[in-house]
Amino acid sequence: MTLRLTVRRLEWTAHVRATAAAYGSALLPVVKGNGYGFGRTVLHEVAAGLATQVCVGTVHEVHDVPAGLQPVVLTPTLHPPAAGGARQGPAAVLTVGHAAHVAALRGRPGPVVLKLGSSMRRYGVEPNDLPALQTAATDAGLEVVAYALHLPLAGTDAHRRAEIESWLARLPADGVPLWVSHLSPESFHALAAAHPHRPLRIRVGTALWHGAPRGDFLHLSADVQALRPV
Fold first, then answer.
1. pLDDT of residue 83
2. In angstroms, how far is CA 139 from the centroid of its own chain?
């Protein structure tokens, strides 16, 4: 079976630019896995015109990020790449959500994001354990540059915002930015306006590259060779 993805490039480019403009300077583009079907290299070129950082899935996706972009690795690792590496450009920002993630980075100082637990029930520190994780990161020589909260697609913006508000009430008043996800531009800006003393940024992947719901600038087709009852 031959599958074809047809992209109306001018319409797709207009959508990407409009979405980026709607979020503004708080946007953190996400380019992970197979690059949402486009290929990471293609999307890196576009992301470089939208921001100075790009979120990638794992440490194995850092090597092909162009020098002009700083990679932010979303998934914690117990086997970080060698410091310095062959890649040119800013050092990758790694993610930690557990003491074991911090221990794996000891002796490799650099910027990290502290992953907060959410209703996604993936990795992430619980509120009562956050102070200990922060202390462990500092003792390991790591620079905490942000907190991150990965929210579920299920539910509404109101549900997601309530979860963010719950964490905001528990974070120390340290001015460290909070990175969130899966909010519409309107909901995100309303949240930011309600918390002027906490810098907020938003990671956007699917809505940026595919549209949410998926835009009609993408069309998947196939050659059907035969039909048989099953």
1. 64
2. 26
